[in-house]
Amino acid sequence: MSAFSGARGLSGEIWAAAGLIRASVQEKLVYRFDLLVTLVRNLILITIFRFLWLSLYGGQAEFGGVSLNQTLTYATLGIILSPLFPNSLILDVGGRIRSGNILFDISRPLHFGSLLLYQMMGQFVAALATSAAPMFLIALALGELTLPTSGWVWLAFGVSLALGFFIAFWLDFIVALAGFWLTETWGLFYAKWSVVDALSGKYLPLWIFPPFLRGLALALPFRGILYSALAIFVGQVPLEKIPAELGFQLVWALMLTLMGRLGYVAAARHLSVQGG
Amino acid sequence: MFRLFWLLKWKSLKAELQYPVNFLSGLFGTSLIGAMDILMLWVPVTAFKAIGGWDFWQLGFMFALWKMSHGLHEFFFLPFRGKHDEFLRMGDYDSFLIRPMHPILQILARSEFVVANMLSELFPSVTMFLICAPHVKVPWSMGNILFLGLLLFSGAVIEWAVYLFISTFGFWFVRTNALRSIAGTFLFRAANYPLHIYGRVFPFIMTFVFPFAFMAYYPTHYFFQMQNPLYSVWMPYLPPLVAIVALTIAWGFWSLGVQKYQGSGT
Questions:
Q1: Between chains, do A194 and B22 touch, taking CB under 8 Å as contact?
Q2: How confident is the model at residue A275 (pLDDT cuts 50, 70, 90)?
Q3: Residue A64: its chain B contacts at CB < 8 A?
Q4: How many domains does chain A have?
Q5: Would you say residue B264 lies in a domain?
Q6: Chain B residues with CB inside 8 Å of A63's CB?
Q7: Residue B193's closest chain A neighbor by CA?
Q8: What is the pLDDT of residue A4?
Q9: Is A40's Cβ below 8 Å from some Cβ in B?
Q10: Segment B206-215 mean pLDDT
Q11: In this complex, is the C-beta atom of A63 within 8 Å of any C-beta atom belonging to chain B?
């Protein structure tokens, strides 16, 4: 299978990727009403966390070396950006295994991992354009965001988000492979969802975690999904430490890619689909 | 009629236990949600000492009340949060309406994974309850334990009433997901922190629109003997009344909606 995709060469791969990304963008745009609901939900969440932080800071402008504005920016941006990252592949893949449709996916010339990767990229791009960007502007207008002044920080933030996407995707893919062994995957879905929510710094920045937990969270790859980008954006990662932060993400992105690819070989060998 | 209801619940438990590995992995996974919610309380309260003046015991107790009520809701009333739209779309209502049992009871009995769902809410919440209950000011007398039981059931009914009301819109519109997800944001996120930190609009919504504050925030004041700062000092005693009123309104609305039912055309 992989030999076949090699034979089509790089340009074939790029054509396939572009097609899949375009298709998922179009799919997303069909559900315009859902975009509105996401907007309302995000506004509610931003309000909840705005009040939470105001209450925690209790009128002080700073806590533990972090200003209220930095924290509000972190919280708001976290709520806006976290829906962009793949987090529920396991339900999708599990469903396709139960129905047997998985056979069509894995027998295509395109690698199954790449197929899903390009689809998720499309969703990432579509969500970025249709919900995250408008939400960002709304939050900016509401005065929830303090923007970085350095162009390097903006650049690093963009790179960090992209790397975060790859970490999120391959983690999600590896967990989804469990669907090849299990018949029901919802338990695993929720387990992964909770761990990612807490350890990626989606709702709470890792710097307020107690030392032991913070050490753990900083060592694990989940932080690379969202925390890295947010901490860079609000300036909690100083300019000289940005390369190390991006390096951490890059190493995990590559390791998880490799693990995902290897895991898929084992999973495909194990696959058994019910007839009918 | 209620015997039949329990019989159907019992059957669904047996169906769940047909796949013990799925049952246990589902239980484990969904219990982690509760554990992470507790973490979301514990981390800020450890760093900042209090949230809205409440310490960890008060916050944990409020969380436990909410989550235990929610666990009861999952056991008795889940289909109105989950499957109602699908029943309308797939034409299941045709069969609900021609059987002698009340359609709402039939829908309540049509549930999947209710036991795993309930237990995964109860594990983290009962644990938190046992940790926080010794710090409560009122004594654990028989009367207070009965009042607690009444509160938990009232909370479950309040949640049900909100989702029954929302589900009823399904008779006019195809999908009610949007309202459901907005209500869910208040239920699953806003209810975790004390209501008085949210300014004016959110307390109003959580009291009069989606009255989730009666599930835990108000009653917590009774157990900790605090003066409730919002609306009235009597709020902690009102959940049973709110449950009855909310359910009456939702039930009435459903009765109106069901007359609009025209079948799915399949």
A1: no
A2: low
A3: 47
A4: 1
A5: no
A6: 47-48
A7: A52
A8: 45
A9: yes
A10: 92
A11: yes
Is residue B31 in a domain?
yes
Q: Which domain holds residue B132?
A: 2-258
Residue A275 lies in a domain: no
Closest to B105 in 3D by CA, of B215, B172, B176, B9: B9
As a whole number of angstroms, the distance between CA B155 and CA B69 comes to 5
Shortest Cα distance from A119 to chain B (angstroms)? 24
Pairing relation of β-strands A62-63 and A66-67?
antiparallel
Better-predicted residue by pLDDT, B81 or B153:
B153
B19 touches chain A (CB under 8 A): yes
Residue of B48, B182, B210 best to disrupt the A interface, most CBs of A under 10 A: B48
Closest CA to A118 of A100, A101, A131, A105: A105
The whole-angstrom separation of Cα A154 and Cα B67 is: 41
B146 band by pLDDT with thresholds 50, 70 and 90:
very high
Domain count of the fold of chain B: 1
What are the tokens at A40?
A: 């309302």
Q: What is the residue-averaged pLDDT of chain A?
A: 85
pLDDT band at A205 (very low <50, low <70, confident <90, very high): very high
Q: Classify residue A93: in a domain, yes or no.
A: yes
Please indicate whether, in this complex, the C-beta atoms of A208 and B36 are within 8 angstroms of each other. Answer: no
Helix or strand or coil: residue B22? helix
% helix, strand, coil for chain A, step of 5:
80, 0, 20
Residue B263 falls within a domain, yes or no? Answer: no
Domain region containing A160: 2-270
